[in-house]
Amino acid sequence: MLKKDVPQDSGMSEGLTEVCYAVGEDGRYDLVASSGWEPKNITNDQAWDVIAAQLELVRAEVKAGRVSPLAYHMAKHQMDVTLLAQYVDLWRWRVRRHLRPKVFAGLSEAILQKYADLFDVSVAGLRDVATVDESYRPGKDRLI
User: 136 in a domain, yes or no?
Assistant: First the structure.
């Protein structure tokens, strides 16, 4: 692709640019800033729609009492047990246990504060997914 043909279709990046390789006038590859590409923007939007649907399924599971609110926050931030355990410096089996509603309800304030700090919510917000903003759209304000 020539430098002049690098797409500049804005999308999810909202003013940010990414670097692409393009052929310059001298026939050599150069780094060129691009604000986006429409097919990539469409694909990213579709992927975030799938994630939003999965997030709503997890929210329903939490409200039904099948999993703890921790599962919602994990889904919102696209984390699995292994990644979350690494971030909060706990064993994976402990994090898995914390996904059980009864175990989560009995967690100490110190453990809850670790999770709350990571997810940038209050301990009360961590415990109650009903207080979480329903208009949250993954991809628009990602934590990670």
Answer: no
